[in-house]
Design a protein that fits this description.
Structural class: alpha/beta
Distance between the termini: 35 Å
Number of strands: 20
Strand order of the largest sheet: 5-4-1-13-14-15
Largest sheet: 6 strands, parallel
Bound molecules: magnesium ion
Strand content: 15-25%
Radius of gyration: 22 Å
Helix content: 25-40%
Order of helices and strands: EEEHEHEHEHEEHEEEHEHEHEHEEEEEHE
Shape: globular
Amino acid sequence: VIVPGSPLDGIQLVLADLDGVVYRGKDAIPYAVESINRTHEDLPVGYITNNASRTPETVAAQLAGYGLRVTPDDVVTSPQAAMVLLEELVEPGATILVVGGEGLVIAVEGAGFVVTRSAEDAPAAVVQGFSPDVGWKDLAEAAFALHSGIPWVATNQDWTLPLERGTAPGNGTLVSAVHTAVGRLPVVAGKPETPIFVAAKERFSAERALMIGDRLDTDILGANRAGIASLLVLTGIDQAKQVLAAEEDLRPHFIVDDLRQLHEPYPEIGVSLEESTGARLVHVGDAVVRLQGNVVSVDRLGSRLDRLRAGCIAVWGSGVKIFGLDVAPELYS
Ligand SMILES: [Mg+2]
């Protein structure tokens, strides 16, 4: 049962990012599995991943391992979104030069294209996704093929790959190597570009979706670009400081501490003008945040989360960039 006034109210489809939303490292994030399963009793849930090296089956098996009720059809990958783009760019059954791993090869073959690894086969397009096995020879084949001017589709543009041993080059970095060699840029399928969201909405035949993510520059930006409501959960990368400072297209509709709050009424936001001082007061729950001139201060603490929500409304509505404001540390520390 969807709780009236909750972030799920009026929503037909929930889309969830994985890392930082469902799991972190090898462990499930507290409350995520129960809350998503509860959501799934009323709504379809799609899992959105930019990772091009894993198949939907592999991802679904991992998620099921945490206790989520999920099938491979619930997983929307950047290679699948790349196929939507390819179908617009080349003839059915065309030969495609693939730079990437098994997940991408399966998607390309599944879309009815012929896979090649060599520019000698006169491919109609290049599609590039991450695999740890991609090497110089693969990038060189892509460059040879791209000099003829054929379309180039990248599954995603993630610069880095967070691994247990540290930060490694991601697909965006490998794409960038080819870009430097050929002097042009690919079209991109994954977050924060819109094709992956379009593919998800089509898959589930839903219009009003809610994207749940932990990163402003991929999940939230992509949802905003795709015209999808967005919810930032503070269990992953971005925290209070980042969301307070977010530029307009990176701002989420909802901010929650954990996914239990999918099933709680989202507090009303009240904005009022204080006649005597000209200050703007933002009320969320018991928190009151004051914007006066370029100073953002706290009149009443309320809960940490309501204070952050109110602080965001005050900062975002100020019309001033974050570095031009004096923001009370109670809002972000
Ligand atoms: Mg994430």
